């Protein structure tokens, strides 16, 4: 019998966590990975570079992150705490997503670490084939679980960041601007789909309430086209604004959009339309009781 073999060693727990806490082998495994931490982390970093992963990060950043990942990886092997792993994976994602790191890179580096550690365990226990099998039977499911958890957490965080960026872009592309007291302008540029039209309504109604607006000029000069659902949404936006005490003037309708509105049968009686933005602002000031004076550039002192 090899000096490493323990006759009381049993198979890994059947709960799928890969724990070996009943036979005392897990502390040996974790101690080995911690004892050789520097060498194994350097080997892992070398393989990451050979695979051309994490190239968006500096060498200092990669050293810091691989050290953190290694330590957390070993800690999860020891404790089996999925919650701690998920929390760490989210923190990791927040740090590296702004660096331009892609999902396949994250999965790749975790799988490389799994393989580096597996090779190290093989070297340690290769003289005792039976014990090696038990070690790998415990290690592989736990390592795969870690890789899966990190990948899922990264994808979830990336999707959250994308949604946040999309919301920011929408807010920038549909700004509600106060022109003067009780007068707002909403210039819309780009494709106006159903989701953006819904957000437009929310922003507009919020702006009306915040600025106590009485008139809103919605300029759609920069909108190439609208479909029936979006056109009907605009009508509902006008109705909602009216309920909040604000009149809506729509300016900048292109001939194509005007024909679309007529063709699909939109109730145009609910829309106050003016040809261009300048005319819309003049009409808005008239509704607010301001006198509008034109400067034709004629005459002088």
UniProtKB/TrEMBL annotation:
InterPro entries: Bact_StressResp_Reg, STAS_dom, STAS_dom_sf. It comes from the Bacteria. This is RsbT co-antagonist protein RsbR. SUPFAM superfamilies: SpoIIaa-like. It holds the Pfam family STAS. The lineage of its organism: Bacteria, Bacillati, Actinomycetota, Actinomycetes, Geodermatophilales. PROSITE patterns: STAS. Transmembrane segments: none annotated. It comes from Geodermatophilus sabuli. Residues 173-284 form the STAS domain. Residues 1-11 have a biased composition (Polar residues). Residues 1-20 are annotated as: Disordered.
């Amino acid at each position: 019998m090899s000096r490493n073999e323990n006759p009381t060693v049993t198979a890994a727990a059947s709960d799928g966590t890969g724990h070996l806490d009943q036979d005392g082998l897990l502390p040996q495994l974790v101690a080995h990975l911690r004892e050789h931490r520097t060498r194994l982390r350097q080997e892992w970093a070398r393989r990451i570079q050979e695979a051309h992963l994490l190239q968006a990060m500096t060498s200092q950043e990669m050293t810091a992150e691989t050290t953190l990942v290694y330590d957390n990886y070993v800690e999860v092997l020891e404790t089996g705490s999925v919650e701690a792993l998920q929390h760490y994976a989210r923190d990791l994602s927040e740090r590296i997503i702004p660096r331009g790191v892609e999902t396949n890179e994250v999965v790749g580096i975790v799988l490389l670490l799994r393989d580096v550690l597996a090779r190290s365990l093989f070297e340690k226990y290769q003289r005792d084939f039976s014990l090696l099998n038990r070690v790998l039977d415990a290690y592989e499911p736990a390592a795969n679980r870690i890789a899966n958890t990190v990948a899922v957490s990264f994808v979830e965080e990336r999707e959250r960041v994308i949604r946040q960026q999309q919301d920011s872009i929408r807010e920038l592309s549909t700004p509600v601007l106060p022109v003067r007291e009780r007068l707002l302008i909403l210039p819309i540029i780009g494709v106006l789909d159903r989701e953006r039209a819904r957000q437009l309504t929310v922003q507009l109604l919020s702006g009306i309430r915040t600025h106590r607006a009485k008139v809103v000029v919605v300029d759609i000069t920069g909108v190439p086209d609208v479909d029936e659902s979006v056109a009907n949404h605009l009508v509902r936006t006008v109705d909602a604004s009216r309920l909040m005490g604000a009149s809506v003037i729509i300016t900048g309708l292109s001939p194509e959009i005007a024909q679309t509105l007529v063709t699909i049968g939109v109730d145009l009686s609910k829309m106050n339309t003016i040809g261009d933005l300048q005319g819309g602002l003049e009409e808005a000031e008239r509704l607010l009781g301001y006198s509008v004076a034109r400067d034709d550039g004629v005459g002088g002192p």
